[in-house]
Structure formats: structure tokens, C-alpha cells
Design goal:
The chain is of the alpha+beta class and 190 residues long. The protein has seven helices and eight strands; from the N terminus they run βαβββαβααβββααα. Strands 1-5-2-8 form a four-stranded mixed beta sheet. It has a two-stranded antiparallel ribbon with strand order 3-4. It has a two-stranded antiparallel ribbon with strand order 6-7. Strand 6 and strand 7 form a beta hairpin.
Length: 190
Amino acid sequence: LLIHNVDTLGADLDPVLLGHHIDQGRAWTSEVITRRIEDRGGGLARIDGRPRLIEGLALPHERIEFGLSYYNSNTSWVDIDQLLAVFGLARGDLADGPRVAEAVRGLALRMPTYITLKDVKKRWGRGQEDVYPVAQFEKLWGDMTALPELNCGFVVVPRQRGQQLKEPAQLDGWLRDGSAAHVEGLCEWR
């Protein structure tokens, strides 16, 4: 299974990466890219002697994030059966909603919860809008790489495949560095 953020525009079903993931026998293979100064949100780090993804929010100071060499593209290859085993489940269990919910809650207890404060706009129409502060509680997918029983690997991919496009201000650089052309070449657009 390939999982990626919608803002990682260059991600696709690359048969070479799929083959690598299968050959390694991993439950999870995360794609990372070489970090640039503008990349925010975490990366690949060695923690307690083991490589894993770590979120910028989990670091004690933001300057530590800038010392990480690789940025998490948030694209992962997953072996479904191995991942289900980490939850204590098998494919046949997926029809049992209460059992699945219990397994998810049990694993979620072992993972950090992040709270972020954001401003959300409510547009009323006719040019009127209000901004409301909201608290967002979330669990982050990459934190699962910290689980000792999850057999994880990491692969460095080209920036054009793994760069995230989060803000309109990034469009110019994305166009100039060849990332837009890369996405254009992935398929036929109509």
C-alpha cells in the first residue's frame, strides 16, 4: 500500500521503490528527501540508537530540526499484514468494528498527541469573514516509526518526488526547480 499526503505532488507508484520495499521485507518504508532550510515539520533522526521519523513539534527546540539531514516527505510504503499485526489484528478481523476500534485505541495510547493552535476563517458571504482560534488534537502517522515492533526502513528519493507544496508562495520555486515538469511527466493531462 502506498500512502502519501495530498500535498506531496510528485509521489507515484514507482515500481522500483515498491520492489525495494518488498525485497527488504519491511512493514513500512518511508521516503525522505534531502532537507532544505524551508522544509519544516520533522525528519529522520536516530533516537535511542534507532532511526525513526520525528515531528518538529516533538523536538525540545526548533533549531534541532535544522540539524536533521533528511525531511519526511510523508510518503510511505506499507505491508498491510505486517502493519495489522502491530495492531494485533489480521485481515479477517477488519469486519469486526468493535475489535478494530479497540486495537486502534490501544495503539494510540502508545503514541504522542499533538495540540496545535490555528486560526480558521469563517466566510459569511458578501465580503464578511471572521477568524476563530481553534485547538487541533492529532496523532501523526510518522510517529509509528518509533514503535520497536514495527520493521521500518527509509529511502532517500529525489526532491521532485518528495517535496511538499504547502503554500502558494512555494509555487515559483516548485516551477523553477523542475518539480512542476516532473509532475507533468507522470501522466497525460487532459
